[in-house]
Design goal:
Blueprint lengths: L5 E4 L5 E5 L6 H14 L15 H13 L3 E8 L2 E10 L8 E8 L8 H14 L6 E7 L3 H10 L2 E11 L5 E10 L3
Parallel strand pairs: 5-6
Antiparallel strand pairs: 1-2, 2-3, 3-4, 4-5, 6-8, 7-8
Helix pairs in contact: 1-2
Length: about 180
Amino acid sequence: MTIEPMQFTIKDGRTATIRSPKMEDAEPMLSYLYRITGQTPYLMNYPEETSKYTLEGEIALFEGMNKAPNQAMILCEVDGQLAANCMIRWGSHIKTRHRASLAISVLKEYWNLGIGTRLMEELLRIAKNQPQLMQVELEFIEGNNRAHALYKKMGFRITGVKPNAICLKDGTLLDEYMMMYEIKC
């Protein structure tokens, strides 16, 4: 699904643009993934694990996301720099096509500017426009209080926990929490 570019003003007065990814975003996205995974332990990869992603793979991912009727990826740019990305997708299987999954990340230098909220609003708007969707689901890792607060503010509620789901390099075990946003019952 392709999202037309939209602009909004972030809390520091600058203009941000949200839009679907383009082929020329593949290289900046690889850099973004490396940077973002080094900024927080609350993502599923470490920076060195992002080396598995390739330029060709990112281009194919973008093309697939933009063409698919059941998924969307949105990038956020500030001053021509990639600041955040998010995605939503849902399946076509009869038993689970009422559920969508959502993921979001924002580079640290863009925290507290309203970008995460604006991206979540757009993803939830997309979800609400899909007649078969009844709920949107996501996960967050224990200790990620910023993400938990955002999700709660947007209307998500905790539905479960996977104990010791994440094992950090130092052996620390963290729980993973599942959350859900109800569109309709």
